[in-house]
Amino acid sequence: MRILAVETSCDDTAVALLDGCSAVAERVHNQSVHSQHGGVVPELASRSHLKILPGLVSEVLLSGGMNGLNEIDVFAATAGPGLTGSLLVGLAWSKAAAWAARKPFLAINHLAAHLFIHYCPERLVVFPAVALLVSGGHTSLFRMNSWQEILLLGSTRDDAAGEAFDKTAKLTGLGYPGGAALDIAADSGNPENCSLPSPMADPAQPEFSFSGLKTAAKLLWEKGAPRSDLAASFRKTVVDILVSKLMFQSRKLGAKSVLAAGGVTANSLLRKVLRQECASGNLELFLPDKEHSTDNALMVGRAAAAILERDPEASSPLSCNAFARWSGTSLSPIGCPPRQ
Which residue of 104, 107, 193, 259 has the lowest C-beta tally within 10 Å? Predict the structure, then answer.
């Protein structure tokens, strides 16, 4: 089953060709234009997707040994949540390609796709599991009874952890996006030299809040706190909150596996602490490699592969539209209702 997957939910244009769950070829184009604006400009993002996507598809098809779109069995694209303009580019292109090639199309939920990066026959997740989805736009905990039953435990009430990292990095002159730069700066700092609050730190509460922490970091910076120490304290505070809540739910629910996904899983301290905690708790840890922690099309393709494994005839209607936000208590990889 050859799947062509497209991801354009924010400012990265990504395309992947899969054979089932296995990557055959993939490409990601990172938009650099937003750094000069200090944040993602939606109009610029969507225009860039329009310009880049067709060429990226051609590169992936050539690299994967495909002679054309007619050799693709299923087309898949992210329908949401994300920036509506960006989503519409990938969604419209994929629906048009599926229609022209007379092949099925699947609309994929972006949040579920991040978790489905771990849907891989080489290493099977043992359920029940608890999953942490932590990125620039989302911070949530899920209970996973199976790949078909993913239940929301709690989410952030304001900023996502990745957004807090990026904005604090921008504040301290590390640029935007600056999560990775803040991670590097933190390595040379002492977290004990700066005192930051831990908002909603109760491990038993599966919800998050990072806006107050961001404000506290701003006040310390304005008082002259050293950049490396502030970065180290900020990183440690966020990681402690994320890991304590994740491990509490793992113990409470009797989890056998722990999954982490999203761009913040590239953070070096988070990866280190997760490995330590899961090893001491005898839990199987599933972490994406850093290349696939941020938005990518492989995760979209794997979500599509999981849908097709359950129902080989599955497809989404071509009338399926993009959506900016997701709400609900049960997460599905299908990004819009299947046609009846």
Answer: 193
Q: What is the pLDDT of residue 40?
A: 77
Which amino acid, one-letter code, is at 287? L
Q: CB under 8 Å to 130, separation ≥6 — which residues?
A: 141, 142, 143, 144, 153, 246, 249, 250, 253, 255, 257, 258, 259
Indicate which CATH number applies to the domain containing 175: 3.30.420.40
- Scanning 64-109, the segments in alpha helix (DSSP H) are 84-101
Instruction: Note whether 134 and 212 are same-domain residues.
Output: yes
Would 339 be classed as within a structural domain?
no
Q: Name the 3-class secondary structure at 114.
A: helix
DSSP letter at 77 equals E
Residues 96 and 167 grouped into a single domain: no
Residue range 129-158: mean pLDDT, rounded: 97
* 199 within some domain: yes
pLDDT at 43 over 70: yes
**What's the pLDDT at 339?**
43
- Mean pLDDT over each residue of the chain, to the nearest integer: 94
340 within a domain of the structure (yes/no): no
Q: CA torsion 210→220→171→158, rounded to 10°?
A: 10
Comparing 303 with 40, the larger pLDDT belongs to 303
Indicate if 284 and 301 belong to the same structural domain. Answer: no
Q: For the chain, what percent of residues have pLDDT higher than 70?
A: 97
Report, as an integer, the average pLDDT of 263-289: 97
Which pairing describes strands 139-146 and 129-134: parallel, antiparallel, or unpaired? antiparallel
How many structural domains are present in the chain?
2
For residue 338, pLDDT over 60 is answered with: no
Classify residue 338: in a domain, yes or no. no
Length of the chain equals 340
Containing domain of residue 302, as a range? 2-115+294-331
Q: Are residues 151 and 197 in the same domain?
A: yes
- Regarding whether 209 and 178 lie in a shared domain, the answer is yes
| DSSP codes of every residue in 151-211 | EEEEEBSS--HHHHHHHHHHHTT--SS-HHHHHHHHHTS-GGGS----TT--TT---B--H
Global pTM reads: 0.95
Choose among 292, 286, 299: nearest CA to 256.
Answer: 286
